[in-house]
Task: inverse folding
């Protein structure tokens, strides 16, 4: 990653060398929305790359934008600023949001320091990714679920820009009887605000373009990705593909891991239904984030900022929960699994799913 980004310090600005390189796609999407007022150019790869080339010159390479229209408002906000200011604001917002979600209400210095030195914090900032924001929304919502369900619902609803991280929220809310958060998040905020707002601002074709152009292209990238794009996907599907399995075999392997994680998740929270009126414990949040990491074939290592945030919360509760060998294993491996997956994939020894399933099994004990 350092070698990939090092030319930024010395050579001409372009997307291949820009610090925060993936945030540049978000910025370009925002510029397109503001200047062309069309979602079609965002989900048309040739038009998207041509627009980006026109902004920064040659050298940008092949680029794409896969996020759903629920991310358009954020993209337009980011695109309304000059890129250096947009990148600084976007990065600072993610870091501050995560510190608020994990550190509130006491904001102890060790917590903030742990979040700063967490591996995926640096990775997200260098690559310009959104893992800090999504981790803040998810972990913040989980922490607020018992005593502020409405606010938790707002945070879960805002996570609609990355729905793969919210797959386990509905079963969690059902198991805990949190209907208020469920209705607020999915019926009110997500449907009315984040899903309909882009239709009102940019036309009814936004969702059609997403389903007919962006999703098929995203699936193609998942099936055929190479380079750092492939290395950053630690899912069981991609791990199986790196190990040499075909697409069907890779999906079968992924299904096995996802079903195993879902089974552990359900057993854990069914066993704790009598505590549903209480806030989620730090172990609950850890189990939730680990299970979520195994659900989608398109999860990326920078999404594992949510696991690191859960680990920091667990460290905060050391005086309330016993330190067992099982949780020590979870902490040690969970803290490193984001970077470990990058290197293990590069060495064609994809081990991340095995670590994750072992971690969630240990955390559940």
Result:
């Amino acid at each position: 990653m350092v070698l990939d980004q090092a030319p930024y310090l010395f050579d001409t600005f372009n997307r291949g060398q820009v610090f925060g390189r993936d945030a540049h796609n978000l910025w370009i999407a925002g510029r397109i929305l503001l200047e062309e007022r069309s979602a079609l150019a965002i989900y048309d790869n040739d038009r998207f790359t041509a627009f980006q080339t026109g902004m920064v010159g040659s050298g940008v390479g092949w680029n794409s934008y896969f996020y759903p229209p629920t991310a358009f408002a954020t993209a337009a906000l980011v695109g309304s600023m000059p890129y250096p200011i947009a990148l600084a604001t976007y990065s600072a917002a993610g870091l501050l949001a995560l510190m608020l979600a994990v550190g509130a209400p006491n904001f102890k210095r060790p917590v903030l320091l742990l979040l700063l030195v967490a591996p995926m914090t640096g990775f997200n900032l260098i690559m310009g990714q959104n893992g800090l924001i999504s981790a803040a929304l998810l972990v913040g919502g989980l922490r607020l679920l018992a005593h502020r369900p409405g606010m938790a619902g707002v945070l879960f609803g805002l996570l609609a820009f990355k729905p793969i991280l919210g797959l386990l929220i509905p079963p969690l809310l059902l198991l805990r009887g949190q209907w208020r958060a469920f209705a607020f998040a999915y019926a009110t905020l997500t449907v009315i605000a984040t899903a309909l707002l882009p239709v009102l601002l940019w036309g009814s074709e936004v969702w059609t373009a997403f389903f007919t152009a962006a999703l098929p292209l995203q699936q193609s990238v998942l099936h055929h990705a190479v380079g750092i794009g492939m290395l950053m996907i630690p899912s069981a599907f991609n791990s199986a593909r790196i190990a040499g399995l075909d697409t069907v075999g890779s999906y079968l392997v992924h299904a096995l891991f996802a079903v195993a994680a879902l089974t552990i998740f359900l057993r854990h929270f069914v066993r704790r239904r009598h505590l549903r009126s209480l806030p989620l414990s730090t172990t609950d949040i850890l189990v939730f984030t680990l299970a979520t990491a195994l659900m989608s074939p398109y999860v990326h290592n920078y999404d594992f900022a949510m696991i690191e945030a859960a680990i920091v919360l667990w460290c905060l509760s050391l005086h309330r929960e016993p330190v067992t060998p099982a949780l020590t294993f979870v902490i040690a491996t969970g803290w490193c699994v984001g970077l470990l997956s990058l290197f293990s994939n590069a060495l064609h020894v994809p081990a991340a799913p095995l670590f994750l399933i072992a971690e969630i099994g240990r955390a559940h004990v």
